Amino acid sequence: MSTRARIVAINGSERDGNTADVLRHAARVAAGRQAELEVVDLRNIRMTRCGPCGDCNDRPVPCAVQDDVPAVVEKMVAADGIIYAAPVHGFGTAGLMQTFIERSGVGYLRFDRPLSNKVAGVIAVARRYSAGEVWAQLTVNALLNRMILVGSGFPAQVHALHRGDAWKDEEGLTNVARMVERMIDMIHMIKEYRALTGRQEILAVTERNERVGLALDELRERV
C-alpha cells in the first residue's frame, strides 16, 4: 500500500480562470507534503447532460450514456481524497459541476457508494455573493457519498472576479492551504490505521445503498 496521499480535485469551472488558480495553489501545498494532487477540468472532458430516459431511479446498472464521466469516477475511486471546486455562476453552482454531480451521482456512485471513507474537501470561488450556498451544496454532496469531510476553520471560499484576482485573496488561499494540509493529515492517519489493524473499512458501511424502495439485488436479477 502506497503511503503517498493521492487527491483528485474536480474543477467545475468552464474557464481556465480563478478556480484553476486556486487549485494550482492547492497542488503546490500538496507537493510540499509529498502528496499528489491531480486536477480534472470538467471543461476538457466529454460530458453529456442527463437525458430524457428518466430511468435513473430504477435502473440497477450504471448510466448507459457513453462519455468520459465513468473514467473520472474511476479516478476518484482510486484516490485517497476528493476536492470539489466550483465557481459561483448566477448565484449557484457552475453548470459543469452541477451536470457532473447529477451524472456521476445518480449514474454511478449511488449503487455502492464507492467514495465511502474518502477524505473530502470543498472549495467555492465567488466575486462576492453565494459562495456559502455553493460550498454548502458541494459539502452535502460529499456527505451524501459518505466521505469524511475535513474542515479548514473558515470554509475554503476564495473571492475573485477578474482573472488573477484569486491570488489577491490571502485569507481565502490560507483557508484552502489549511484544508489541503488537514486532508493530507487525515489520509495519513487512515493509512496508518489500516496498516495497523488490517481493516479497510475505517467506518462501518452496513448498507451500500440507502435509497428507500431500491432493492439492488432484486433489480439486478431481472437484468
Task: Using brief descriptors, characterize the structure shown.
223 residues, alpha/beta, Rossmann fold, 7-stranded mixed β-sheet, 6 helices, 40% helix, 16% strand
Q: How are the elements arranged and paired?
A:
Elements: E1 6-11, H1 18-32, E2 36-41, H2 69-78, E3 81-89, E4 92-93, H3 95-109, E5 119-126, H4 131-144, E6 148-149, E7 157-159, H5 170-197, H6 216-222
Parallel strand pairs: 1-2, 1-3, 3-5, 5-6, 5-7
Antiparallel strand pairs: 3-4
Report on the structure:
- With 223 residues, the chain is of the alpha/beta class.
- Helix content is 40%, strand content 16%.
- Strands 1, 2, 3, 4, 5, 6 and 7 form a 7-stranded mixed beta sheet that branches.
- It has one domain: Flavodoxin domain (Rossmann fold).
- The model has no long low-confidence stretch (mean pLDDT 91).
- Helix 1 crosses helix 5 (170-197).
- The protein starts with 5 loop residues before the first strand and ends with a helix.
- The chain has 6 helices and 7 strands.
